[in-house]
């Protein structure tokens, strides 16, 4: 190392802990990101890149009444003189200032392709042109009048404004978005006329509450319109905290046709939502049958937004249709409010609405004072010059003689007529053609006008009340230029009360189609379309057979009970289709052995079910308590050693008796009230099966009689049941004639 660098290597080597070095450098990076890149200034509402863009365009004389210049020229000037960053990043910032769907009050007027609401990219900067808008000129007004401080540019060769005079309330009117290190800002656009009304109210009532300010500024006013569905209390709370979340929806209406048919037309999209992406999302939902209330979607947009939603049926309520769309797409979004900005001391902090407006007004007061002082200085200099002109006019011949005969006429003029250096220089710099303009009366008239203006400005400087009155008048003029009476300033977003809750049926969100669920003896499951009555022609694997066939819908849940007392829940939407042999059930559930399945039924909710084991024990339980959230199921019945669960039967709402049949062909009937209701367990003895086992059970209404299906398939009902009527836990008596040999009620 010594050989390479010599005896005295250049540079300085210091021993620093890596953690300390990283902390210092990361802190510097974080501060640079916060102050110089991501957060806007509360006074003019601009980030440095936006401020530099506007200032560079002003220097290029790209006024609204002048011609356009290539955007590449603007970007080149910005990165060459003021903002040493990538040209694409600067161009993206320029494009955003020109997009009327991104900026409520565009600061740049673009010519060419600057992107669109569908999310398409703008053309390259070599193809587009730009110039300033009237709003931007309002922000820049006063730069030549010492209204704000200037600082050296990054290379020290020029000057740039620290902040713009900002007579337009840009922070709230256009909003701001930025992500810094450890903090972010998100301020939605508002209506400038309403912001100015709130600011003027704060001038009149400095102690005004935020609720009073919200009365003048009721909520965001987005470039793309939409409907803000939040209560006034929520808005006041958000503005008071400086943080909040507001719900924004697309604006829509219906168009009715003959025969009662209609279509829904969306005319305004939520802020910063790409229309094409939403249309594509809805089309995918329709194709996947997750939005069954909608039959088709068409984008008929031209200069304005027009997205048409065609309902599947004229019986579908339009409000229900749109609620289902709002729930699943960005037709409804959350509008974040986080008023984290840099204050006048470049300190980042979250401000409430009153603090933001107060900072804007204080800045306007500072600008007014500085511009007034600048104008007073200009008047003083002009009066000094006019006094010199007046002295020259009264002694014109002598002035000419001194100038002609002296090599250094200025000291002679100053001594002869008691002039200042400024006055002497003004006389010496005067062109000969101007001599004819030196008329005494004109000089005196101009001087009198300046003295009157000087007196007015001095009165303004001496009176705080007069200054605030002047600021109020300026804000009134700004409102007349950009307020609600102008095309640009009319309110676009509607502020509405939260909508009444609309019950969206499952069918409107998820496609509900009939299916037949088949489960084979070896545990292969599948779903056939429709409610098939005869499944005998449906093929199964060799050596297998159909065991359960259940009619359900694609939105249903299936309850599967095994003989060890566990209940498994399976969503019908997870079932494989009817092609092939299906899939093994143990791939969908942690089911140990399909041969142990006792029954499979469709969950309906709210029903009562009778669970019983072959040893005659059982109980009634609520169906809702059987739903399992895990693949491993839920232990509901705890059979005695050697016993197995054999049945799960729905209990009709009007049932008042229970009939039990055993494999010994015994029948026992007793009041249903004797059967306890439990969430889980083993249950008491319902029937003593003797050497046999419990075979089946049926809950019924005694007035209607006990019904079963005979071996021939006919239905038989018995109303005289006194012979079999007993109490819980008995063996029962021989089944009546004609009872099925299977000992099942059917």
Q: Which key terms come to mind for this protein?
A:
746 residues; alpha+beta; Topoisomerase II, domain 5; Gyrase A, domain 2; Topoisomerase, domain 3; four-stranded mixed β-sheet; four-stranded antiparallel β-sheet; 32% helix
Please describe the topology of this protein.
Layout: H1 2-5, H2 18-38, H3 48-59, E1 69-70, H4 71-82, H5 87-98, E2 108-111, E3 129-132, H6 134-140, E4 150-152, E5 159-161, H7 170-174, E6 176-179, E7 184-187, H8 192-204, H9 210-216, E8 227-229, H10 232-241, E9 243-249, E10 251-256, E11 262-268, H11 275-287, E12 294-299, E13 307-311, H12 318-328, E14 332-338, E15 340-342, E16 348-350, H13 353-394, H14 396-405, H15 409-417, H16 421-428, H17 440-462, H18 464-482, E17 494-496, H19 506-509, E18 514-520, E19 524-529, E20 546-553, E21 557-562, E22 566-571, E23 583-584, E24 597-602, E25 608-613, E26 618-622, E27 634-635, E28 645-651, E29 657-662, E30 666-671, E31 694-700, E32 706-709, E33 715-718, E34 733-734
Parallel strand pairs: 8-17
Antiparallel strand pairs: 1-3, 2-3, 4-5, 6-7, 8-9, 9-14, 10-11, 11-13, 12-13, 15-16, 18-19, 18-20, 19-23, 21-22, 21-24, 22-27, 25-26, 25-28, 29-30, 29-31, 30-34, 32-33
